[in-house]
From TrEMBL:
GO cellular component terms listed in the entry, alphabetical order: plasma membrane
UniProt protein name: NADH-quinone oxidoreductase subunit K
Signal sequence range: none
Principal location listed in the UniProt entry: membrane
Superkingdom, taxonomy of origin: Bacteria
Record membrane topology: Multi-pass membrane protein
Taxon lineage: Bacteria, Pseudomonadati, Verrucomicrobiota, Opitutia, Puniceicoccales
Length: 115
């Protein structure tokens, strides 16, 4: 399963780099969104994919079960999703204003904004 996740992460990262190197501003934003998702999958995969119980101590027990899921990667990814969404919304708003000012989403046209 981890090999399949590694292949998926590699494919998403390749699509991300391809999108980031395009001349269109909107494709650049899609590349940023793909990068965020690839990093989230990488954190999940690096933490280990083990089917385990949640880290809850039942009444009457003195310790949790032997195999428990690690909540730290889940918390990190949840935080990264929120931050990634905020970044995506900010870049969409910024790109909308930039496209209105320049008149095109081609990144080469952004050099001529001083005139």
């Amino acid at each position: 399963m981890e090999l399949l996740n590694a292949i998926a992460i590699g494919a998403i990262a390749a699509a991300c780099i391809y999108s980031l190197l395009r001349r269109s501003l909107l494709k650049f934003i899609v590349g940023i969104a793909l990068l965020s998702q690839a990093v989230n999958l990488l954190v999940f995969t690096s933490a280990g994919l083990t089917p385990a119980a949640p880290p809850i101590i039942e009444p009457g027990m003195s310790a949790p079960p032997e195999t428990i899921a690690d909540p730290l990667p889940q918390a990190l990814v949840l935080t990264a999703i929120v931050i990634g969404f905020g970044l995506l919304v900010f870049t969409l708003a910024l790109s909308r204003r930039a496209i209105e000012a320049v008149g095109s989403d081609d990144l080469n046209n952004f050099k001529n904004t001083d005139t």
